[in-house]
Write a structure and sequence with these properties.
about 350 residues; alpha/beta; Rossmann fold; seven-stranded parallel beta sheet; 13 strands; about 45% helix; about 15% strand; binds nicotinamide-adenine-dinucleotide; binds 2'deoxy-thymidine-5'-diphospho-alpha-D-glucose
């Protein structure tokens, strides 16, 4: 089977491409990626070397109709990861999010519809997010289930929900074999260091402030990336067309607990003084519209496809810390461009305000 993976140079995409090629000797993978700030060819340099005859990289845009049509005519499946993925950046300006996440997904759906007309057995996997459901209260007994109406609350999740709806519409209107994964907060190797886990690891190592938004009691369900990849592959191969599947880690944790664990893990490995590094935790002004809690019921995936997370939260975080400590050169290279300006714009003033007592400590 030839599988088109979009966004394969990003965090989850690069792990997924490696996973597919390593576990399926008969598959060919074509990776379509625009190489935005979040995409790095270096994340797949081992794949280029190890699987040269079954892997091809194409630099291009999911909004490019001619390119996508040509690629889909050759492929039997697409796994669509490509997106603008960072909530904070969407709050700073949402246009790119609508362009790539909504119009890019629409272009791919439309190209697949035309390229696969009359074919059977193909699959279009749209990688959505648990954020499309909106937010839960801390004590809400109901978890997100697939039949819950979508109610996104920030520009990123609104763009992902629009594409989720479009994907469902292409199944209902045209019979396109669309399958959707709605996954929770994923962590592991090759995640761009703007996200909570790698950002904290880098700052703990460097002895810089650890910026925690608001009271830090926001809850996410943490999913190790290889568990996400196994689930995505199961949906691709055995999922029912027209269905959405939640993918969760069964590991709800408040952000402060995640940050404290990361401090402990880094200090243990580098022989740093624990209390000194913990004192770097700095509560800064909150993310506007910050969703209090995401919590996923991933029972459907387990019942229908037999997939459950295999990696325990503490074990997964320990492995992730080891990977980042061993790959500090990768982190430095991927953040060497415009990232410093982004970091200063996002955190500079909020850290200064926290330093002058502008933000309450909890
Ligand atoms: P990422 O930001 O690390 O990678 C995105 C990739 O998409 C990059 O390689 C980038 O170059 C590429 N890209 C961006 N715009 C493109 C375009 N117009 N054309 C082609 N390529 C383009 O993202 P990620 O964290 O790996 O997330 C992958 C997918 O999973 C996204 O759709 C995201 O919404 C979804 N998701 C992520 C998480 C998470 O915790 N990371 C959780 C749930 C869902
Ligand atoms: O839930 C799935 C989503 O998880 C995906 O759809 C998104 O693509 C992915 O980026 C992620 O979104 P979050 O906003 O939850 O991830 P982030 O790592 O940005 O933040 C995790 C939590 O940590 C969130 O409550 C905000 C908080 N945070 C984040 C950063 C970067 C901080 O307190 N400080 C920080 O510096």
């Amino acid at each position: 089977m030839q599988i088109l993976v979009t966004g394969g140079c990003g965090f989850i995409g690069s792990n997924f491409v490696r996973h597919l090629l390593a576990s399926n000797p008969d598959d060919q993978v074509v990776n379509l990626d625009l190489l935005t700030y979040a995409g790095n060819l270096e994340s797949l340099s081992d794949v280029e070397a190890d699987f040269a005859s079954r892997y091809r990289f194409v630099r291009g845009d999911v909004r490019d109709e001619k390119l996508c049509l040509g690629l889909l005519e050759q492929a039997q499946a697409v796994v669509h990861f490509a997106a603008e993925s960072h909530v904070d950046r969407s709050i700073g300006g949402g246009a790119e999010f609508l362009q790539t996440n909504v119009l890019g997904t629409h272009n791919l759906l439309e190209c697949a519809r035309r390229a696969w007309d009359g074919e059977t057995g193909n699959s279009f996997v749209y990688v959505s997010t648990d954020e499309v459901y909106g937010a839960l209260e801390l004590d809400d007994p109901e978890l997100f289930r697939e039949d819950r109406p979508l109610a996104p609350r920030n520009p990123y999740s609104a763009s992902k929900a629009a594409a989720d709806h479009l994907s469902q519409a292409y199944f209902h209107t045209f019979g396109l074999p669309v399958k959707i994964t709605r996954c929770s907060n994923t962590y592991g190797p090759y995640q761009f260091p703007e996200k909570l886990v790698p950002l904290m690891i880098a700052n703990i190592v460097a002895g810089e402030p650890l910026p925690v938004y608001g009271d830090g009691l926001y809850v996410r369900d943490w999913l190790q990336v290889s568990d996400n990849c196994r689930a995505t592959e199961a949906v691709l191969r055995q999922g029912r067309a027209g269905e959405a599947y939640n993918v969760g880690g069964n590991a709800e944790r408040p952000n402060l607990e995640v940050v404290r664990l990361l401090v402990e893990l880094v200090c243990e490995r580098l022989g740093l003084e624990l209390e000194e590094r913990l004192s770097l935790i700095t509560h800064i002004a909150d993310r506007p519209g910050h969703d209090r809690r995401y919590a996923t019921d991933a029972g459907k995936l387990q019942r229908e496809l037999g997939i459950a997370p295999a990696i325990d939260f503490e074990e997964g975080m320990a492995g992730t810390v080891d990977w980042y400590l061993d790959h500090q050169d990768w982190c430095q290279r991927v953040t060497s461009g415009a990232y410093r300006d982004y970091y200063q714009k996002m955190y500079g003033q909020r850290l200064e305000q926290a330093g002058t007592g502008g933000v309450q400590e909890t």
